[in-house]
# Entry
Amino acid sequence: MSAQPRRVENLQTDKGKVPVYATGIVDQPWDDYSADDHATWATLYARQREILPGRACDEFLRAQDAMGMTPDRIPKFADINAALRAATGWTLVGVEGLLPELDFFDHLANRRFPVTWWIRRPDQIDYIEEPDLFHDLFGHVPLLMNPVFADYMEAYGLGGVKAHGIGPHALQMLTRLYWYTVEFGLIRQADGLRIYGSGIVSSKGESIHCLDSSAPNRIGFDLERIMRTRYRIDTYQKTYFVIDSFEQLMEATRPDFTPIYARLDALPDFPAGTVRDEDTVYQRGSGEGWAQDGDV
Ligand code: PHE
Ligand code: CO
# Structure
């Protein structure tokens, strides 16, 4: 038997049934992980590291190695924290699962990243509908070693506390920004498009789909466009947004969003698969990698 969380209840929301967990911080019960739990980590880790070179951005892969994550066993949060503390001052805190929005924002605003302590069961290797330890730790934590990305995540948390006070529509727009950057972002590297989003790097299917398939749109980062774009939680994304650098992301999100939320409030949403004439679209190049539409 693998170690499993205490689920408190299921909440019916506009995103369907969402599990609700106790909100407190828990010590990672490392000694309780079973051989199955460690094996699940090892399988997922090896599988992703096999396909990610040439797909994930260099920054992600280098940071993951630097912080001492290995396939052998589930990492101890305390060990990861020593590396994070030295690099950017972030701290992992163990949680039972998805947190209420305000609790989540408060953690980020204080440079604490909540990590689900339990790992999926063997029969959930390919897909699990909620974040588990593999998604949170393998997917989210490496880029917290990057100083610019680390600052972005803190700024996002502060922005979340603010958006929460403004109202549900502001919060929805900010959540879309997280979705299309932190979870499903692509970045342009000198040698082509690469993945930095955690929701992608922790999924074998989507890691391949987002770059290799001609089905999804890959569109240049545009803050207001993202804030107006709906997303799917139960299928691969129809659209990915591409940044040039973490600095670009940081600069574009530095302005006060309050007047932007107010202005966008009256404007319609875009369906997830929309492409507009004014969008910068990236297409697969004739050679390797990806090129901007027009220069192929
Ligand atoms: N500048 C944003 C605001 O005023 C805060 C923010 C920064 C949000 C970075 C997201 C990411 O709300
Ligand atoms: Co996530």
Observations:
- The chain is about 40% helix and 15% strand.
- The chain has a mean pLDDT of 92.
- The pocket of phenylalanine (ligand 1) is lined by residues 152, 155-156, 159, 162, 177, 253-257 (CB under 6 Å).
- Residues 147-166 form the longest helix (20 residues).
